[in-house]
Predict the 3D structure of the following.
Amino acid sequence: EYDNWGMNVNMHKTEYPRIGKEQEDPDLQLRHLKRCEEYKYLGSIISNIGTSENDTKQIVQQGRKCIRILNSLLWSNQITIATKSTIYRAIVKPILTYESECWQMSVKRRVDAVEMDFLRRSCRVSKIERIPNEVIRRRTKRTDTTTERIETRQLIWYGHVRKMENDRWPKTVINY
């Protein structure tokens, strides 16, 4: 089918996940392809295990990576805390909250830790100084946490799903 549209598929790079029973469809001709346990699709890790643990770990790692890249900017005393907060809302927060509507909240502590890491660097305070998180939040004028925002988004998504028709997949899965 790809050939009909003038597209090429590299069969050496192509992988497929096998989910469920070990039966193989002869029409698909998958015997030449390599099987994988998980793959990344639209930024999410799809796994045959069925858990989002790897997905959320990767998102937290990307948030930490972003903070490392911004490190010199965050420790700078020439940039105001208000500007650093804007950077957080524009760059780091979207990374940390990507697809968070569907997360299990077991990742909550990790997200809080990444957020506090950013805020401490913004205030130019090291963890060694042992200043409580509440003091750092007051200095940065943060009233809500990222995990509170995630919980709000989850409740909004839940409300959308409850209003869906009964034959829609998201509602079927939640009611399961």
User: Anything to note?
Assistant: The chain has seven helices and four strands. The radius of gyration is 22 Å. The beta strands are 15-17, 34-36, 38-41, 44-47.
